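Before the break, one more example. Copy the sequence into your notebook; we will annotate it together after we see the structure.
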Amino acid sequence: MPRNREAIAAGASAIVLAGGRSARMGRPKAMLRIGASTLIERTAGELLRAFDDVVVVAAPETEGIALPALGAAAILRDSEAYRGPAEALARGLRAARHDVAFACSCDLPMLRAEVARRLIALIDDFDAVIPRVGNRLQLLHAVYRRRCADALDAMSARGERRLGALLEEITARVIDEAEYRRADPEALSCFNINTPGDYARATRMERDARR
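Here is what the structure looks like once it is written out:
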């Protein structure tokens, strides 16, 4: 890895978005238990292994998302519930201590901090690094610079709440699946829980990993 990439990777934040509606799941995903921990505790704990600054952006009154359970992570509450990931990401980027941040949703049970650091190391002069896995952009398993917050705010001001619309406003490096899998061969770090079936799969994987 070139020296400048090492410097960027060393000084980076992590942002966890935990304020979604969880409509398909039917209950708040952040509080689902995987093994002995809730999903938000598991996600924040994993990122704290490799980042000195972790910001959790949560809904205004989400029960259970509190210190000390999240360790050294900072908790930032949305001003209004369910405004979408674009506004939440902008708030997280502005609150982060570092210019570059790995941003993810709270529902990634197999997230690995090492994969996040590998993505950060690819930022170079881009505004963002976004993997494409399974023909889908992994917008909440990606890296963003703080200046992306301005574009996100402009989007929100005109009523655009789709996070994917950000790619029309910034210069993003899209990582194809083959390159991504060099860091995450089974692509499990970006596996997210959307449905009860996904939750059952995550529970099985966690149980198998402990055997």
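The first strand starts at residue 12 and ends at 18. Residues 1-8 have pLDDT under 50 and may be disordered. Try to locate both features in your own notes.
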